[in-house]
Design goal:
It comes from Mumia flava. With 162 residues, this protein is of the alpha+beta class. The protein is built from four helices and seven strands, in the order βααββββαββα. It has helices spanning 16-45, 48-75, 113-118, 141-157; strands at residues 12-13, 77-80, 84-89, 95-100, 104-110, 120-127, 134-140. The strands form two sheets. Strands 1-2-3-4 form a four-stranded antiparallel beta sheet. A three-stranded antiparallel beta sheet has the order 5-6-7.
Amino acid sequence: MEAIFSPGAAWHPVSERLRTMRRVLILVWSAVLGITAAVAIGLLLGWWWLSAIIVLVSAGSAVWGWFWAARNQRAWGYAENDDDLYVRSGVAWRRIVAVPYGRVQFVDVEAGPLERAYGIATVSLHTASSETSAQIPGVPADEASRLRDRLTELGKTHGAGI
């Protein structure tokens, strides 16, 4: 079964900073939403037992998110071979996308404020078909720049629309 997910080239994992960034987001959102909802219900309705349940659910979500972020980060990766770029993702449902260099129309590198703070970016490959387009989150900024330049160059040599 693992042969399906083996492109014949070495996998490059995404940065562990993606895991850290997602953990911070999950913890902050769990705390803000859980505390806000618990306090509001407690003050407005006086149902402190429900507030306690909301806090417990929120804490449970944060713990689940902590482990999910690590597992999800390890699931992402990409591999380059002579003709294709492979992108893998998914924990329970694994997915691998092979993007032929000749099909790449353009390469997009994005980084929001939080991603920039962590020094990572998302590399997006766009093709004529949405099924073969791919995104790679959590790529270190210098690697994202290198990957963008390499994919652009390979697209030109393989006759793509870049």
